[in-house]
Amino acid sequence: MVGETARAPRRDRVSVTAVRHAFGESFDLEPGYLNTAAMGVPPRRAAAVMAEEVTRWARGRCQPTDYDRDVATARAAFGRLVGVGADRVVLGASVSQLVGLIAANLPVGARVLVARNDFPSVRFPFLARRPDVIVDEVELDHVPDEVAGHDLVAVSVVQFGDGRIVDLEALRSAAEASGARVLLDATQALGWLPLRLDWADHVVGAGYKWLLAPRGPAWLTVHPDRWAELVPYAANWYAAEDPWQGVTGGSLQLAGDARRFDLSPVWMAHRGAAMTLPWLAGLDLSAVHRHCVGLANGFRAALDLPPADSAITTLDRPDAAERLAAHGVVASVRNGRTRLAFHLYNTEEDVALALAALRR
Length: 360
Fold this sequence. Notes:
Elements: E1 5-6, E2 18-22, E3 25-29, H1 44-58, H2 68-82, E4 89-92, H3 95-104, E5 111-115, H4 120-129, E6 134-138, E7 152-156, H5 168-178, E8 181-185, E9 202-206, E10 218-222, H6 243-247, H7 267-281, H8 285-302, E11 312-315, H9 320-326, E12 331-334, E13 337-341, H10 348-359
Parallel strand pairs: 5-6, 5-7, 7-8, 8-9
Antiparallel strand pairs: 1-12, 2-3, 4-10, 9-10, 11-13, 12-13
Helix pairs in contact: 1-7, 2-7, 3-4, 8-10
């Protein structure tokens, strides 16, 4: 069952859908949805805009240039969530594709440090694409201690499998002392964990989990000191200084900032991202953090487990996934453990439902 989502049949759950209000937005969310670490649920407003956009498309009313503002809006909001300007943000389609850009630019013989059992999209671009580099895998807690002697450290801020958080301050200090570059995957952190990662060489994140956007957009920040070092292996019309001039017969010239590494956008998905990312970037993320971690720690306390201080928690209990699914709780199984994720739209009702399922 590894990698599966545990849930009850949909026909048993449709009638209990209710509107929830959280941090200024409303959600059509079924009780017991604790699976944001796999897929986020959009606000009603964003879902309505996406439905309207599909209708416009079906009626032949969409044009490619319609989405330029959405792309720029989501790009800038991602930068604010990370703590950098929009000029540092690269547009991509997935974490693995963007990590692959960094992997492709490593010199032969480079040494890369990764965390054992980190998400495959962080590790696999180095392991599979670059057999001429050396990849060392260590336990997450040991990553800061092993930085010396490596050219690049690639690690998730929050581990997808169990919610553990890397010691960012220790990692930063170790990288500055040794001169190693740092690539952080913030996919499981952005949207609930307040972060300022302007010091990192690269920060990557996908939009369809905690950022509540449609699947399609992903972003990568590139420190200005690295712009000249990276070869834009996927150079395309959208990476030009003026993309629309290039496709109408004008001369092509790479953008002067991090846009030179862009992929062309998944247009409609960016319309949804332009709704959710600015809203999240404008919230008091300390309050969001307290809410999410408070629910997760409360759930753990009720099961006599110590606090984990993460929005993601796991259970090492063989029957947990089946019990939760039988009572309408949507969770996932990762690395043999049942994973639950508490986001800003979750409430004590979700905690109570999950606890009731486990206690019966």
